[in-house]
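# step 3/5: fold
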Amino acid sequence: QVRLEESGGGAVQAGGSLRLSCVASGDTFNTYAMAWFRQAPGKEREWVAIISGKGSTYHRDQVKRRFQISRDFAKDTVYLQMDNLKPEDTGVYYCATENISVGWREDEYRYWGQGTQVTVSS
């Protein structure tokens, strides 16, 4: 069993920055893929950034060069550094993990955090 707890969300103006954190506890974490998903009001949840157990990173096109995912194995923590935020980045951000190399769909992940709200105003 794996537990995930996100933090770091908030309200910022466009152009601002936030850093989300996700602390994992429980089962083996270091070999698992870790992902950040987000869900905007009225929209489906979508992947934002993924980091594999080997450290390979993937960012969706809309956030490339603005967001950066990273992980600290010693702290069992994954981060999402978000810079130059835009109003379209608004949504609830979820951390997810699974014992896979990498996964693009939410149904590939069994373990989810409770989510943290990010609101970007223009």
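# step 4/5: annotate
The radius of gyration is 13 Å.
# step 5/5: archive (pending)
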